[in-house]
Design brief:
The chain is mainly beta. The chain has a single domain, classed as Thrombin, subunit H (Beta Barrel). Helix content is about 10%, strand content about 50%. The radius of gyration is 13 Å and the shape is globular. It starts with 13 loop residues before the first strand and ends with a helix. The relative contact order is 0.24.
Length: about 110
């Protein structure tokens, strides 16, 4: 997710901790959704798409048995010397049911 101060975000970040399948171009990998909000998410992954690339993600949110497929664009990447790598992605026209599931998560946290 873009690195905005908390008061400028569309909604607060919610810790998720869910495995995800990521697809872009000819690549398919698994990653780990660490945080989500109504605008986007942060995905930990040893490899990730380049900035600006579109990526399709398939994953489940905690407490919700439904599997969601969401398209997002990569807005920042992170690769640190301690091995923590991943990317922030902004949702592109997320399904209404997915946004409702995030709102339900917000109520729980």
């Amino acid at each position: 997710m873009a690195r905005k101060p908390a008061e400028q975000r569309i909604s607060r970040r919610i810790p998720v901790g869910a495995p995800a399948v990521m697809k872009w171009l000819d690549e398919q990998l698994t990653g780990y959704v660490e945080q989500v909000n109504l605008n986007g998410m942060y995905v930990a992954s040893p490899r990730f798409p380049p900035l600006g690339e579109y990526v399709d993600l398939i994953f489940c949110l905690p407490g919700n048995p439904k599997s969601f497929r969401v398209r997002a664009s990569v807005v920042h990447t992170q690769a640190t010397t301690d091995g923590h790598t991943g990317f922030g992605a902004k949702f592109e026209r997320p399904p209404h049911g997915f946004l409702e599931a995030i709102r339900d998560l917000e109520k729980e946290h």
